[in-house]
Structure formats: C-alpha cells, structure tokens
Write a structure and sequence with these properties.
By secondary structure, the protein is an alpha+beta fold. Helix content is 23%, strand content 29%. The chain has one domain (28-127): 2-Layer Sandwich (60s Ribosomal Protein L30, Chain: A), CATH 3.30.1330. The protein contains two helices and six strands. A four-stranded mixed β-sheet has the order 3-6-4-5, covered by helices on one side. Helix 2 (87-98) links the parallel strand 4 (74-82) and strand 5. The protein is globular.
Length: 128
C-alpha cells in the first residue's frame, strides 16, 4: 500500500505544513482513531496547552506503534481546539511529530470538549 499527497496544479499551496489530500493505493491496513485526548497514562491532564499537545501526540504515537505504524503512515489529521487557545502551539506540536510528513489536515475550533480540562483532541487515519 502506498500513500501519496494529492496536489492538483489548480489548487493553491496548503496554508501550513499539511497536504490537501492523501490517496492510498493497494491492499493494506488502516488505523482510524477516536478523538485522542490529552490524558496521560497515569490519568492526569496537563494544564499547559503545549503539554496537552505533546500528550496527545505521544498517545497517537503509542497507538501507531502498537500496530506497527509510524507518523509517516498518517494520511489524515482532524484537530479540535477550544476557541481562544493558541493555534500556533497546537500546529507546532503536530509539525514536530510529523517531522516533515504532510498528511491531509483539518483544524476546527469548538466551544468546548467533553471534559472541561481538555483544551484539544485529535483524530487520525493511518494506512500501511
């Protein structure tokens, strides 16, 4: 299975470090996560947004590793951030985790998440 960016010449470049779309061709495995929240293995939620972002990506990394995948297998990211939070902090954490890989990516601001201490959550789709 091979995933590659889809970048028609008729579209402008993406607004940040992501691809407009990814196509996956061939037989293989898919991983679809639920919204991954900033709760650590011990059940705690960090206060700082940067720490929450690091926790979310660490949790996603653990899920990918569990099924023999890595960041380069991610084809789509959907990020939910509470209105008023620093989106640059969230995007920087994504970019560090992706290390140059540019999956399709959507960022949505929302009034709140399921628990008040959660300031962000992320769902990904990966294919290998």
């Amino acid at each position: 299975m091979v995933s590659r960016p889809v970048a028609p010449a008729s579209l402008p470049a993406p607004a940040a470090a992501y691809s407009h779309a990814m196509v996956t061709e061939g037989a293989g495995r898919w991983l679809h996560t639920s919204g991954v929240v900033p709760t650590g293995p011990d059940g705690t939620v960090p206060d700082a947004l940067a720490d929450q972002a690091a926790t979310v990506w660490s949790n996603i990394g653990a899920m990918l590793a569990e099924v023999g995948m890595g960041p380069s297998d991610i084809v789509s990211v959907t990020t939910y951030v509470v209105v008023g939070e620093d989106l640059a902090v969230v995007m920087a954490a994504r970019d560090r985790f992706m290390a140059g890989h540019r999956p399709a990516s959507t960022l949505v601001t929302v009034p709140a998440l399921a628990r008040p201490e959660w300031r962000m959550e992320i769902a990904v789709v990966a294919a290998a």
